[in-house]
């Protein structure tokens, strides 16, 4: 069987966001980039299916040279092959998905894995977009997964519970935290990943459907009111919530 | 001439709160553009609930009502939305950014070659263009964006947009005939496991969340009791989810749920950036923490610097007293 994983490279969660000089994107100076955390669950899921069912694994990323680090992380965890669709352009989700779908349509993977969302633009779109472009079903926010013959049986998180979802293959899965515990690459894996080649391709589609007009920082909140330092402050707090904030 | 189509989510033939928010916002945008707004309901038996939308000023409700649509199917539902939009001539499609809305919208985006602004916290018109505002980098920044494709899709963060009632409007229902065959059900929900009958944090108007400052799982009842008194839901920081005090379902934050209630009360939560990612768009934030330098106080509107174990029982009693008046 064939398992593909799509990974992105994103600013670390602790990044302090500064707006870049174009006023539309962040200033990358001093930012540490990591593989998108949800994509580690996707990589782990692909590896587990491969270990159980045999077959091959491949990782794909759309982005600049910095995305090679995400591919190498996937290599270090055990993925065998990697493709970078190399671009310096800012692509929106639609455009990223088009490029992924163009590469994936020749790969014919049985399962294509994505993360639930990439933590830069928090879109939660690319997995389902790509699946639709490939004409295959998709299951998003997946927290458990079983391959039974030619059927996938998954649980996905919804408001107030979970859905048990059944899908035919080929299918796309968008991994949520809880699906598994991503393995730590061992030293041998990390060393091997360093020298493993990454195939580079040109983007096939570059036109965006959305346009960022401005990026702004959230308005700083007026300093909150410290009502007190013990339980004696409670009546005052409740009064404020009722009369000033009018929320209870 | 534009036309707006809102997909309104229902479960077991009950329209979700987020659905009314979406219908109202669709109507507002349509009015600003001098366009019409219609609502699409999908399910089995949804024809019986169309009237409720009249109360929100919706004049036309399209229903895809079919027994095979009782349980959600990504492939079938997205096909219906795309086909209904084409048939109705809708070029603006609005959904809620719920688990279902996110799931459908991206597939419709691909089907209709439509650009999408997802999880918007504001949408408005400027000179006939729709401008959407949405958080990025877990709420550490916001972008204003425009969709340039002929068909445009917007998903709205639940609990941010207000449903607005309108008097004297009755919703006319029209059946949308869909051709569905087995290949449209390549993926389908078989069963729904309700985690409990409790209110989900993403759907609650008031959320009380607890963190490690509660000292142990035996004290979590303080959070649950306050949530109950206020008619809200109980949430949790990742620290106590990881420690096994609470299910992952309750986790608020970057790797948990994003909430925007009108009131968020953080009890014994430090306010790590990943926690803030899930709740910073709440309208009013209250923090109870014994450390005056805890980062949560930087975004709190009100705070008490003190011991939660001592303060919470008093707060619960005071709220009970005040709310019973
Ligand atoms: C990739 C990644 C993703 C993450 N995702 C999330 C997420 O989705 N959600 C999330 O919440 N976290 C997330 N985290 C974890 C986050 O960084 C914090 O570790 C976590 O939020 C801390 O939880 P806490 O505030 O309960 O605990 P702590 O940070 O330990 O804070 C406890 C607080 O309680 C206060 N306190 C102690 N005793 C008392 C008392 N008696 N009365 C009142 N206050 C008291 C302390 O002053 C302190 O501020 C993530 C981390 C990473 C790296
Ligand atoms: N540039 C990219 N290259 C490869 N995969 C991506 C890229 N961007 C997003 N993805 C995949 O799509 C998922 C959802 O991303 P998003 O829709 O951007 O939130 C991610 O977790 C990745 O699996």
Describe the structure.
The complex is a heterodimer of chains A (248) and B (325). Chain A has a single domain (2-201), classed as HUPs (Rossmann fold, 3-Layer(aba) Sandwich). Helix content of chain A is 29%, strand content 31%. Chain A has helices at 37-53, 68-77, 93-107, 126-134, 187-195, 234-244, and strands spanning 2-6, 9-11, 33-35, 56-63, 81-86, 111-115, 138-148, 151-158, 161-168, 171-175, 199-201, 210-216, 225-228. Chain A has a 9-stranded mixed sheet with strand order 9-8-7-10-6-1-4-5-11, sandwiched between helices. A two-stranded antiparallel ribbon of chain A has the order 2-3. In chain A, strand 4 (56-63), helix 2 and strand 5 form a beta-alpha-beta unit. Chain A starts with a strand and ends with a helix. Chain B has 2 domains: 3-185, Rossmann fold, CATH 3.40.50; 206-324, Rossmann fold (3-Layer(aba) Sandwich), CATH 3.40.50. By secondary structure, chain B is of the alpha/beta class. Chain B is built from 8 helices and 18 strands. Chain B is 27% helix and 29% strand. The chains are: A alpha/beta (248), B alpha/beta (325). Chains A and B meet through helix 3, helix 4, strand 7, strand 8 and strand 9 of A and helix 3, helix 4, strand 7, strand 9 and strand 10 of B. The complex binds flavin-adenine dinucleotide and adenosine monophosphate. Flavin-adenine dinucleotide (FAD) is lined by residues 211-213, 237-240, 251-256, 268-270, 272, 274-275, 278, 288-291, 294, 307-309 of chain B.
Question: Can you lay out the helices and strands and say which pair or pack?
Answer:
The complex is a heterodimer of chains A (about 250) and B (about 325).
Chain A: E1 2-6, E2 9-11, E3 33-35, H1 37-53, E4 56-63, H2 68-77, E5 81-86, H3 93-107, E6 111-115, H4 126-134, E7 138-148, E8 151-158, E9 161-168, E10 171-175, H5 187-195, E11 199-201, E12 210-216, E13 225-228, H6 234-244
Parallel strand pairs in A: 1-4, 1-6, 4-5, 5-11, 6-10, 7-10
Antiparallel strand pairs in A: 2-3, 7-8, 8-9
Chain B: E1 3-7, E2 10-11, E3 14-15, H1 17-33, E4 36-43, H2 51-54, E5 60-65, H3 74-88, E6 92-96, H4 99-111, E7 115-120, E8 122-126, E9 129-136, E10 141-147, E11 152-156, E12 172-175, E13 187-194, E14 206-210, H5 221-230, E15 233-236, H6 238-242, E16 263-267, H7 273-279, E17 284-289, E18 302-305, H8 308-324
Parallel strand pairs in B: 1-4, 1-6, 4-5, 5-12, 6-11, 7-11, 14-15, 14-16, 16-17, 17-18
Antiparallel strand pairs in B: 2-3, 8-9, 9-10
Helix pairs in contact in B: 3-4, 5-8
Bound molecules: flavin-adenine dinucleotide and adenosine monophosphate.
């Amino acid at each position: 069987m064939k398992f593909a994983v799509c990974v992105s490279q994103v600013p670390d969660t602790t990044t302090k966001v500064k707006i870049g000089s174009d006023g539309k994107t962040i200033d990358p100076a001093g930012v540490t980039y990591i593989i998108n955390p949800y994509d580690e669950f996707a990589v782990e899921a692909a590896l587990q299916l491969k270990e159980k069912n045999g077959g091959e694994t491949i990782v794909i990323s759309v982005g600049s040279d910095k995305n090679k680090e995400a591919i190498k992380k996937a290599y270090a965890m055990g993925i065998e092959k990697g493709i970078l669709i190399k671009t310096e352009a800012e692509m929106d989700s639609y455009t990223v998905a088009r490029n992924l779908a163009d590469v994936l349509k020749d790969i014919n993977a049985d399962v294509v894995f994505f993360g639930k969302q990439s933590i830069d633009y928090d879109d939660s779109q690319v997995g389902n977009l790509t699946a639709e472009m490939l004409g295959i079903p998709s299951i998003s926010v997946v927290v458990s997964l079983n391959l039974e013959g030619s059927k996938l049986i998954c649980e996905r998180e919804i408001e107030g519970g979970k859905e048990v979802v059944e899908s035919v293959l080929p299918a796309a899965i968008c991994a949520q935290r809880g699906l598994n515990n991503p393995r730590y690459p061992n030293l041998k894996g990390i060393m091997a990943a360093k020298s493993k080649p990454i195939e580079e391709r040109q983007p096939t589609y570059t036109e965006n459907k959305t346009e960022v007009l401005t990026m702004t920082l959230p308005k700083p909140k007026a300093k909150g009111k410290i009502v007190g330092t013990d339980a004696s402050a409670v009546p005052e707090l409740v009064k404020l919530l009722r009369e000033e904030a009018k929320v209870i | 001439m534009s036309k707006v189509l809102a997909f309104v989510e229902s479960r077991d033939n009950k329209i979700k709160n987020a659905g009314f928010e979406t219908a109202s916002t669709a109507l507002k945008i349509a009015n600003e553009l001098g366009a019409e707004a219609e609502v699409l309901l999908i399910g089995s038996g949804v024809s019986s609930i169309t009237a409720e939308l009249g109360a929100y000023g919706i004049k036309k409700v399209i229903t895809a009502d079919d027994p095979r649509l009782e349980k959600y199917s990504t492939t079938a539902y997205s096909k219906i939305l795309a086909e209904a939009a084409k048939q109705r001539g809708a070029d603006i499609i609005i959904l809620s950014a719920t688990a279902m809305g996110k799931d459908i919208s991206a597939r419709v985006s691909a089907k209709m070659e439509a650009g999408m602004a997802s999880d918007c916290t504001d949408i408005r018109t400027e000179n006939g263009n729709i401008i959407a505002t949405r958080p990025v980098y877990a709420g550490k920044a916001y972008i204003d964006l425009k969709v340039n494709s002929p068909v445009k899709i917007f998903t709205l963060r639940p609990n941010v947009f207000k449903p607005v009632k309108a008097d004297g409007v009755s919703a006319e229902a029209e059946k949308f005939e869909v051709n569905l065959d087995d290949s449209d059900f390549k993926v389908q929900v078989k069963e729904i496991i309700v985690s409990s009958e409790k209110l989900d944090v993403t759907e609650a108007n008031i959320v009380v969340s607890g963190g490690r400052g509660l000292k142990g799982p035996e004290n979590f009842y303080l959070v649950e009791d306050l949530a109950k008194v206020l008619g809200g839901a109980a949430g949790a920081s990742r620290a106590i989810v990881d420690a096994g005090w609470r299910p992952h379902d309750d986790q608020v934050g970057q790797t948990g749920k994003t909430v925007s209630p009108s009131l968020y009360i953080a009890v014994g939560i430090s306010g790590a950036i990943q926690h803030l990612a899930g709740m910073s768009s709440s309208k009013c934030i209250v923090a109870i923490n014994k450390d005056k330098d805890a980062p949560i106080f930087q975004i709190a509107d009100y705070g008490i610097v003190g011991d939660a174990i001592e303060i919470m029982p008093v707060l619960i009693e005071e709220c009970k007293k005040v709310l019973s008046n």
